[in-house]
Amino acid sequence: MIEPRAPAPPGSPPPWDGPRGPDPAPAPARLPVRPGTGRFLVLAGVFVCAACGLVYELELVALASYLMGDSVTQASVVLSVMVFAMGIGSLAAKRLRRLGAAGFGAIETALALVGGCSAMVLYAVFAWTGDWGGLWVQGPRFLLVAFSLAIGLLIGAEVPLLMELIQRIRRQDAGGAVADLFAADYTGSLVGGLAFPFLLLPFFGQLEGALLTGTVNAVVGAALVLGLFRRDLSRRARWLLLVANVVVVGLLASAAVLVDDFERAARHAVYGPDVRVAEQTAVQEVVLVGGTGGRPLDLYLDGRLRVAGSDERRYHETLVHPAMAGTHARVLILGGGDGLAAREVLRHPGVRRVDLVELDPRLVTLGRRDPGLSALNEHAYADPRLRVRTDDAFGRLRLAPVAEYDVVISDLPDPRLTASTKLYSQEFYGLARRVLAPGGRLVVHAGPTSARPSRFWTVESTLRAAGLRTAAYRVRGPGTAPGTHADTGTGTGTDAGTAAGHAPADWGFVLAARTPPVPRLDPAGPRPGTLTPDTLDRAVRDAAATRVRDLPPSTLVHPRY
Question: pTM score, two decimals?
Answer without folding.
Answer: 0.81
